[in-house]
Every structure is written in C-alpha cells, then in structure tokens.
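Marked as duplicate of an earlier ticket. Keeping the data here for the record.
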Amino acid sequence: MTAAGQAAPAVDAIISIRSIAKTYASGFRALGRIDLDIRRGELFALLGPNGAGKTTLISIICGIVTPSSGTVLVDGHDTVTDYRATRSLIGLVPQELTTDAFESVWNTVAFSRRLFGKAANPAHIEKVLKDLSLWDKKDSKVMTLSGGMKRRLLIAKALSHEPRILFLDEPTAGVDVTLRAGMWDLVQSLRAFGVTIILTTHYLEEAEEMADRIGVIDKGSIILVEDKAALMRKLGRKQLTLHLAQPLGAIPAALAPYHLDLANHGADLIYSYDDKGQRGSIADLLRSLTELGIEFKDLHTTQSSLEEIFVSLVGGAR
C-alpha cells in the first residue's frame, strides 16, 4: 500500500488510477472511485453505454477535467501536479470534430506538434499524413474535408508529437469500412513500436479483434476488467446444434438433464454450455442420443460474440 493507503501501481503499469471520482457542480456523479491500471504497451478497450463515464475518465487522465478525488499517475507523473510532463506523453483523439476550419491540414498538424514544444520534424508529419491517407490533402483547408477525413486529421494531430500513450475515443465513428481498416493497420504498427493504446468504441468487433484487455464501465463504475481471451472463455456461451436425421415432436424425458431446446420445427436440437467444465457433457449427450436411437446428420458449434457478452454484463448491472 502507498502512504495514502491506496494500492501501489502495478509493476508494468504506465497509467495507474486510484480512487478517482468526479461529481459535477450540478450534483451529477459521473465517476465513483475508479481503480484501474493500464499496462505498458497494451491495447486496452474501455467499453460502456452512452453516459457510462468513458469520456469523463479519459478527460481526467489527460488532464482536461479535474477529478473530485483520487490520483492518476502517468509513467510515474501525477496528472495534476506534473501536468506538462504527463500531457506530453499522451495523444488524444476526441469524439468531437474540433479543428481549425480555415487552416491547412499540414499547418494544423505541424502546429499541434509545436504546442508540445517539439522541434519541427517535416518527415514525421509527412509519414503520419501518408499513413492516414491524408497526404494528397496536405494543402487543403480543413473546412473542405469530409467527416471521415476530419476524423483521421484528429488522429494525425494526436500523433504529431510522437506520444507514448494514445487515447482513441470513438475514433472510427463516421469513417468508412476501407479507411477504418487502414486506421487499424496504423494502430497495430504503433503497438509494434511500444505505444500504449486505450480505445473506446461502439464497434465491438474492433475491440474483440484487437484488444489485449477489456474493461467495462457502467454508471460511473468499472464492473469488469479482464484479458480478452479469458473473458471470452469465462463468459462466452457456446452452443452445439445437432441437425437431426428425423425431426422430433418433443424432447425425450431422458434428455432433460441437458436442458436442450428444439428449433427449426424439431429438426435441430440445441445444447447450450460454457467453459466451466461442461465439455465432457457433450460426449455424454451424444451417447444418450445413440442409446435413444436419435440420429443426426451434422453438427456445429457457435460462441457468443463480445457484443453479446457486453450486453449481458451491462444489462445485469442495470
């Protein structure tokens, strides 16, 4: 424990959040005593419904919003008492499309780099713009860009000062599928260079494909933090569907222990299970079917997606 009685940061944590709470002057409690460590070099997906507290938490870590209580350390620096050092380590891509409408793309990104006291580096700015498919728009006024291009410009600004931590707050909203894939290729390359990435998204398939760990926030509280693979194993329901040779009018009483369901007018027999020791039951089920003379033509399994798991978690917390 620390001198303040709080848990010490994890050894590999680049961001350590302890007892962070935020209540606004109106009395609205946006966050209530959040404790969270973000590991160095990971891609952490923060998921939650609208109004759950995601943006408030990110804003506190980035020093934009002052917490009502608690502390945040970024690579050992306190975000309140050592704001300049912490902010220089962070790149933030906000939800809002806030850019200088009458400035050129190049000047907007270059100016953002200068704000952090970084020496001019045209080669770096060129690389960022090319990586984000903005190079051919470098001399265009921001006001002439499409919504998707403005979203990519926000990412370019966030990367202008070569941060070690990148916050992506709904970064692909309004971006078409092709450009979204290109953006995620860039994110993967940043991870390869050791950049820590914190992502919020409504596209849960992105989190499912890319994240190392997943945190779920609801009503201002963290309700779960888990390695993605472990979360999928622990909470992802699996389903075995048996396509029967002959339809059943009803499930035989001898099969009641398996809690089966009939579908497709009795032509499919469905067995739902999880990873908590139930796999052996599949072999038992197949033996029972053989003993009863029930034949099947084919079988396949499916597993719950992250979206289904997320809905079940948040639904249960409400």
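See parent ticket for discussion. Residues 177-192 form the longest helix (16 residues).
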